[in-house]
Write a structure and sequence with these properties.
With about 325 residues, this protein is an alpha/beta fold. It contains ten helices and 15 strands.
Length: about 325
């Protein structure tokens, strides 16, 4: 089978399209014929060997085949598999199961997979598992170190700001927040503002022209995907009782959120920090599937690349402003 192989840290050019042995499912495992995957920031961080990545694997990548988002069809099952049989259409997130989605086949435990909503195309299904679940959990759950009772359920009328709203997580967060009845403000670059309006944002802010933390507006919830400002700046933009959660961004920004956020949260009613992400949670994907079927949340797909062009796709992800998700199609992707 063909796979994108990563044997050392570096730029996308170090990746190689290789012929590798097709895996055989062991007991409790499923062999999946991959039809589509999608790229996430974690793929870039692993490829480059960012600081947090090298804390775990200092010399070479832990995973030789990148990719966590998967949409495909069950090809074969090992002994004792109960949930799936050959021919079943699945989607899932392989973050906790060895990665490997950027290949024609991948072998994974059956617990890593969920039945794919029938009306989704492979490409649509591949766009969801990591980014949409991150968006959903960061809109609804308490940050680390903040007691759950301080997290009010997302509800109609609340003012929610999504910073970095035009990327993969952000485009899902805008739509999910609107589904729950929030008044949503999306912050991103000039080229993304029309798209944000088209998916439901009530207000948009061009970050190149305006700093939302200095505008005087206050929000009940801020979901920040880029984490480029100080903790105190975010605190200034919150209503009393408001919460700010940090999904991604620079290493310095995330460390600030993890360690200073809980400290700042101890004084006053404004809370901030990082939500402990629970990938592949069954109830989250079930809800997201229902919202897709209802037309409430649909993936924004910027570009599609074949498996052989993954290095080019990763360069585009890292160097160019993109709208929503970048999808990788693998072989004959069917629907």
């Amino acid at each position: 089978m063909k796979a994108i192989v990563c044997t050392k840290y570096g730029p996308p050019d170090v990746l190689q399209l290789k012929e590798v042995e097709r895996p055989t499912p062991k007991e409790g495992e499923v062999l999946v014929r991959v039809h589509a995957s999608s790229l996430n920031g974690a793929d870039l961080e692993t490829l480059r060997g960012d600081f947090i990545v090298r804390m775990v694997a200092p010399l070479r990548p832990t995973y030789k085949i990148l990719g966590t988002d998967i949409a495909g069809r069950v090809e074969a099952v090992g002994r004792s598999v109960k949930q799936f049989q050959p021919g079943d259409e699945i989607w899932g997130d392989l973050t906790e199961y060895g990665w490997g989605a950027l290949a024609e086949y991948v072998r994974v435990p059956e617990d890593a997979l969920r039945p794919k909503p029938a009306s989704m195309t492979w490409e649509e299904a591949a766009a969801y598992p990591q980014a949409a679940v991150l968006a959903l959990q960061n809109l609804r759950e308490a940050p680390m170190g903040v007691r759950p009772e301080h997290k009010r359920p997302l509800q109609s009328g609340q003012k929610v700001l999504i910073n970095g709203a035009g990327g993969g997580v952000g485009t899902f967060a805008v739509q999910i927040a609107k589904h729950f009845g929030a008044e949503v403000t999306g912050v991103d670059s000039t080229m993304k503002l029309d798209m944000l309006r088209s998916i439901g944002a009530d207000h948009v802010i061009d970050y190149t022209q305006e700093d939302f933390t200095k505008s005087g507006q206050r929000y009940d919830l801020i979901v920040d995907v880029v984490a480029r400002r100080s903790i105190l700046a975010y605190r200034r933009a919150l209503n009393p009782g408001g919460i700010c959660v940090f999904v991604g961004g620079s290493t310095a920004g995330i460390f600030q959120a993890m360690f200073l956020g809980p400290l700042v949260s101890r004084s006053g009613s404004k809370k901030m920090g990082v939500v402990i992400w629970k990938p592949n949670r069954k109830e989250d994907l079930a809800l997201l599937g229902e919202l897709f079927e209802a037309g409430k949340v649909v993936p924004v797909i910027d570009r599609r690349y074949p498996l052989s062009e993954v290095p080019e796709a990763l360069r585009y992800l890292s160097e160019e402003p993109h709208l929503g998700k970048i999808v990788i199609t693998v072989g004959d992707n069917g629907k």
